[in-house]
Design goal:
97 residues; alpha+beta; 3 helices; globular
Length: 97
Amino acid sequence: MVKEEAISINDVVEHDDGSSTITMDLDETTQGILIKQGLQYLIDEMRVTDKVRVVDDNEFSKETKTHQLSNDEANALFHFGFIYAIKAGMKGLENEL
């Protein structure tokens, strides 16, 4: 769970088309959580879209599981994670209504 102090919203700009641009500061832990969630989001989406199913577990070395992300890769995963968080929040709100 992300602590409220970990996220600081600086500015929200609403656009004519109904979208918004949000400027915020996130601590490193929160950024890491969103990047990991973005990867999970991609995995889940690919399993549904491509009907990928993992049958047997594979064993991987630590070096194989550790990967340095480029800024572009981290940025894309971060945004996928943010999309997932917003969708999860919206579903939570639907359940409360």
